[in-house]
Amino acid sequence: MKIQLSSVMVDNQGKALKFYTEVLGFVKKRDIPLGEARWLTVVSPEGPDDIELLLEPNSNPAAKTFQKSIFEQGIPLTAFAVDDIQKEYARLKNLGVEFTMEPTGMGMTTAAVFNDTCGNLIQIYQVTAI
After folding, report:
1. With contact defined as beta carbons under 8 Å apart, do 99 and 93 qualify?
2. If DSSP codes are grouped into helix, strand and coil, which group holds residue 56?
């Protein structure tokens, strides 16, 4: 058994695709129409055959409540690993990404949190010691 797909709920798939590809640097993998929604996934250009991230439309009222609640509490929905958090933080800041937490040491990792513009807080992290 292995993880092949993970998802983030988004308020608008088109806006999410633009942010996750043009800002974060992911690559679109699948775009399959499913009525009003799409099976829309992105992957890391460093691992195009690795885990896909599904940009899932958030049309479920319970999911909307969950998403809003964790966002308001400042809890990231998911986390992405980076090799150099200071460099990635600077790159994203230069692209206008809004951070709710600057790179902060947390024991063996350094983490930062940003708003993905689609209803989620996302954490980036770098393992700083093993």
Report:
1. yes
2. strand
Domain total in the chain: 1
Query: pLDDT averaged over the chain?
Result: 95
Mean pLDDT of 17-36: 96
Instruction: Say if residue 108's pLDDT is above 90.
Output: yes
Amino acid (1-letter code) at residue 66: F
Instruction: State the pTM of this model.
Output: 0.93
List the domain range (segments joined by +) for residue 68. Answer: 5-127
Choose among 105, 91, 121, 94: nearest CA to 113.
121
Question: The domain that contains 15 carries what CATH number?
Answer: 3.10.180.10
Look up tokens 């958030």; give the residue: 58
Residues 128 and 105 sit within 8 Å (Cβ to Cβ): yes
Give the span between the Cα atoms of 57 and 67, in whole angstroms: 12
